[in-house]
TrEMBL record:
The chain crosses the membrane at residues 341-362, 374-395, 418-439, 460-483, 503-528, 549-571, 583-603. This is Lutropin-choriogonadotropic hormone receptor. Residues 353-600 form the G-protein coupled receptors family 1 profile domain. CDD domains: 7tmA_LHCGR. One of its GO terms (biological process) is phospholipase C-activating G protein-coupled receptor signaling pathway. InterPro entries: GPCR_Rhodpsn, GPCR_Rhodpsn_7TM, Gphrmn_rcpt_fam, Leu-rich_rpt, LRR_dom_sf, LSH_rcpt. PROSITE patterns: G_PROTEIN_RECEP_F1_1, G_PROTEIN_RECEP_F1_2. Belongs to the G-protein coupled receptor 1 family. FSH/LSH/TSH subfamily. Residues 1-26 form the signal peptide. Its main location: membrane. SUPFAM superfamilies: Family A G protein-coupled receptor-like, L domain-like.
């Protein structure tokens, strides 16, 4: 029991000790400066006149209200600071009245709920600085908020407040040199006529705000625009609005493209006194003597003691940051006009061709065989590639000439993500399907007379299901942070900054190269198998094997340049620019998707037969369809008459199937004879 009582006594002793001096000073309200009266939770009053008072600091006070005429008579005060006064909740209209010498007014970190009335200060100073900051309860800058401030130049530091909206004519009647709206984290709306009635500003800072658009009126006088960390500002007004812009520090590199090759005025001025300098510069430049620009405007007596800026008349060049990088150059999505024509041609052919193939194969009256099933998968993959090209071509047509204003919305939006998913899914499923087609052809040729080892549809379905799952996984990874589709305007996963992204890109490329090697190896074997007279491959399988060998080898030859440059880029040694890579994108990357439906299906006799038979159902091409029916009928009769040739006998199941086919053909023959 002794120890707890001792600890309790020590605790009581510590509590009874006086607080340290610094803590005591922090807790104690600041002294009220003369000649002011600062009653706790009351109203502040600073009556004048007070000779020699030029600076009035009102900090850490417990006042709640600053009433009207609170500073009446302080005719000599130059600077008023009202800071860190959290209890202050209201500043009455007319609180700041008739302060002719006032140059600087700061109202920061208070509890006021609306913008204080500063329209009756009537300062006669040339330049006036108004600082209103860290007042989180002020939500609006109303109309005519600064109208009575008639100084020659005004600097407004309105940062860190709770502003959500700036209303029309908010800065009416002012001559603004600088307007700082930075760090107003909730500021979303600035009315189009916010600068209506104002001159300026020359400097505008909207960094770290949620502004989605700048006003369309009043931007002509801006010389310096600062908009860092303004991620909601994805679109700028027309660049012709910024006629005097000299320096821009923005959030997105693409916005700097708007100011490339933008003609700027030779002179840009902050003060209205210099409004005729551009004409004087031109005339002064032509004078043969050493008379300066200023002596052409002012009298000799007025120039005494001036420091001349002899570079004043030199042309100014606009500086913009951040500069566009190699991945996002200043150009449209399709950098060349001929690419715009080609991409529309290719995507239309790819979509219509593959849709036609899918429709005909899926509605055919013939049995869905393994080659037909694989062809359907290939056509769907190529159709997805056509959708990707359609998206890219459509956005390019809509943003032509102004892509810099749409780049952020497009590359960070769902449209680019969808386009990227389509192209990666389509390319991987296409490569996978081509590999399976090749393996199926090799297996069919190698085991041509061993019908019990023939690949069936029940085997092909799970194989292709695996391909769909693999392609979907590869296409989804950039959507969850493994590389991304927003790096470039064509929405390909070109982000290789992280190690995981590099592994992702290299894995895709290595798998594609492996697929190419497998296809080459299979077709070499197929070639030798066809040349071997000991193997009894059917004539139909031999023709298909030769044809598909040429087609698939051509497909991968088209992909070779893309793979080569992609591997070099993955190792951060790019051998080609994004601009030139778009040529590969249009001329090589999607050509297979355009050509495959024609080379694999539409130009084949089997597809033409199915196509005309389908049209005959709608009353079209009945004659051609009848020819194909008779041709099929003749083939059945021929098989029945010739039977099986060769030394190897067919299996019992095959013999039974063929017998049934012949019997069915005989029935058809009798029916046809009766109808004729």
């Amino acid at each position: 029991m002794g120890r707890p009582s001792l600890a309790l006594r020590l605790l009581l002793a510590l509590l009874l000790l006086p607080p340290p001096a610094p803590l005591l000073w922090a807790l104690r309200p600041a002294p009220c400066p003369e000649p002011c009266s600062c009653p706790p939770d009351g109203a502040l009053r600073c009556p004048g006149p007070q000779a020699g008072l030029s600076r009035l600091s009102l900090t850490y006070l417990s006042i709640k209200v600053i009433p009207s005429q609170a500073f009446r008579g302080l005719n000599e005060v130059i600077k008023i600071l009202i800071q860190n006064t959290k209890n202050l909740v209201h500043i009455e209209a007319g609180a700041f009245t008739n302060l002719p010498r006032l140059k600087y007014l700061s109202i920061c970190n208070t509890g006021i709920h609306k913008l204080p009335d500063v329209t009756k200060i009537f300062s006669s100073e040339f330049n006036f600085i108004l600082e209103i900051c860290d007042n989180l309860h002020i939500t609006t800058i109303p109309r005519n908020a600064f109208q009575g401030m008639n100084n020659e130049s005004i600097t407004l530091k309105l940062y860190g407040n709770g502003f959500e909206e700036i209303q029309s004519h908010a800065f009416n009647g002012t001559t603004l040199i600088s307007l700082e709206l930075k760090e107003n984290a909730r500021l979303e709306k600035m009315h189009n006529d916010a600068f209506r009635g104002a001159t300026g500003p020359s400097i505008l800072d909207i960094s770290s705000t949620k502004l989605q658009a700048l006003p369309s009126y009043g931007l002509e006088s801006i010389q310096t625009l600062i908009a860092t960390s303004s991620y909601s500002l994805k679109k700028l007004p027309s660049r012709e609005k910024f006629t005097n812009l000299l320096d821009a520090t923005l959030t997105y590199p693409s916005h700097c493209c708007a100011f490339r090759n933008l003609p700027t005025n030779e002179q840009n001025f902050s003060f209205s006194i210099f409004k005729n300098f551009s004409k004087q510069c031109e005339s002064t430049a032509r004078r043969p003597n050493n008379e300066t620009l200023y002596s052409a405007i002012f009298a000799e007596s007025e120039l005494s003691g001036w420091d001349y800026d002899y570079g004043f008349c030199l042309p100014k060049t606009l500086q913009c940051a951040p500069e566009p990088d190699a991945f996002n150059p200043c150009e449209d999505i399709m950098g060349y006009d001929f690419l715009r024509v080609l991409i529309w041609l290719i995507n239309i052919l790819a979509i219509t061709g593959n849709v036609t193939v899918l429709f005909v194969l899926l509605t055919s009256r013939y049995k869905l065989t393994v080659p037909r099933f694989l062809m359907c998968n290939l056509s769907f993959a190529d159709f997805c590639m056509g959708l990707y090209l359609l998206l890219i071509a459509s956005v390019d047509a809509q943003t032509k000439g102004q892509y810099y204003n749409h780049a952020i919305d497009w590359q960070t939006g769902s449209g680019c993500s969808a386009a990227g998913f389509f192209t990666v899914f389509a390319s991987e499923l296409s490569v996978y399907t081509l590999t399976v087609i090749t393996l199926e052809r090799w297996h069919t040729i190698t085991y041509a007379i061993q019908l019990d080892q023939k690949l069936r549809l029940k085997h092909a379905i799970p194989v292709m299901l695996g391909g769909w799952l693999f392609s979907t996984l590869i296409a989804v990874l950039p959507l969850v942070g493994v590389s991304n589709y927003m790096k470039v305007s064509i929405c390909l996963p070109m982000d290789v900054e992280s190690t995981l992204s590099q592994v992702y890109i290299l894995t895709i490329l290595i798998l594609n190269v492996m697929a190419f090697i497998i296809i080459c190896a299979c077709y070499i074997k197929i070639y030798f198998a066809v040349q071997n007279p000991e193997l009894m491959a059917t004539n139909k399988d031999t023709k298909i094997a030769k044809k598909m060998a040429v087609l698939i080898f051509t497909d991968f030859t088209c992909m070779a340049p893309i793979s080569f440059f992609a591997i070099s880029a993955a190792f951060k040694v790019p051998l080609i620019t994004v601009t030139n890579s778009k040529v590969l994108l249009v001329l090589f990357y999607p050509v297979n998707s355009c050509a495959n439906p024609f080379l694999y299906a539409i130009f084949t006799k089997a597809f033409q037969r199915d196509f005309f038979l389908l049209l005959s159902k709608f009353g079209c091409c009945k004659y051609r369809a009848e020819l194909y029916r008779r041709k099929d009928f003749s083939a059945y009769i021929s098989n029945c008459k010739n039977g099986f040739t060769g030394s190897n006998k067919p299996s019992r199941s095959t013999f039974k199937l063929t017998t049934l086919q012949c019997q069915y053909s005989a029935v058809l023959d009798k029916t046809c004879y009766k109808e004729c």
